[in-house]
């Protein structure tokens, strides 16, 4: 655990990047004393950003900045969090895609959501071919509709 070497209050800003959201949660949860002494966290989950957002909100952290960046055809979410309860009421869409990302729109966000839609459609098509009555089929259908609606709202 990368936080084991830190004492509470030793640093004001922490950056964790290049791992899954659940791994970031494990690291932050293991050293609550260090986490609670921070003034800012800059996080870049490779996956499971929704789980990380839900966890951070439940621990009374507020997102202060959030961007989707593209590098070499891959998309990355980078977010900054500060201690303190958020004033907004989070929706499932906010947790999934990030409230500041949705609000910002822009070409990179649209390209990312289009890529997410492509992946969801590919997964759905593969699933239908191999197992038409798969239990996750309604979830993937709903995700495709959600992404199409979100993209339409940003256009």
Average of pLDDT: 94
Show unreliable segments. none
Radius of gyration: 17 Å
Cα separation of the termini: 43 Å
The share of residues in extended strands comes to 15-25%
The proportion of residues forming helix, as a percent range, comes to 40-55%
Which structural class is indicated by helix and strand composition? alpha+beta
Sheet having the most strands: 4 strands, mixed
Q: Quaternary status of these chains?
A: single chain
DSSP helical segment count: 7
Coarse shape: elongated
- Placed side by side, the strands forming the largest sheet appear as 1-2-4-3
DSSP strand count:
4
Q: Order of helices and strands, N to C?
A: EHHEHEEHHHH
Itemize the secondary structure elements and their pairings:
Layout: E1 13-19, H1 21-30, H2 32-37, E2 40-45, H3 49-58, E3 61-71, E4 74-83, H4 92-97, H5 99-104, H6 106-130, H7 137-154
Parallel strand pairs: 1-2
Antiparallel strand pairs: 2-4, 3-4
Describe the structure.
Strand 3 and strand 4 form a beta hairpin. The protein is 52% helix and 22% strand. It has helices at 21-30, 32-37, 49-58, 92-97, 99-104, 106-130, 137-154, and strands at residues 13-19, 40-45, 61-71, 74-83. The mean pLDDT is 94. 20% of the residues are buried. It starts with 12 loop residues before the first strand and ends with a helix.
Short synopsis of the structure:
This protein has 7 helices and 4 strands.
Defining traits:
alpha+beta; 4 strands; 4-stranded mixed β-sheet; 155 residues; 7 helices; 22% strand
